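WARN retry 2 of 3 for item q-0093 after timeout on previous attempt; input resubmitted unchanged.
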Amino acid sequence: MANGILGSADLAATTYTGVYLVPVNTFTVATVSICNKNATSITIRLAVAKTDATGALLPAADDYLEYETTILPNGVLERTGIVIDASRQIYARSSTANTAVMVYGIETATA
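OK item q-0093 returned
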């Protein structure tokens, strides 16, 4: 089971990015940090969504932890203590590029 940094991404503008997928037979306790590296404010979306058989499924309306949340210039948004069950994925989206996302935490086997 992995511990520490579980996934990271440099987001493209207005595109959902799967940052971390919880492995089967596992649950994860995670922290997500989103860093605005721009000199202007951005808006972000953060979701924990189910995945389909190919591992890709965009967030549904009830999957969001943050929706159109503003991060100030050179600011950070951090969500802690997110408990995620197997086969769910953390997705992030930013209104502009130059936005970094990092997921770190601990994976624990359930079987």
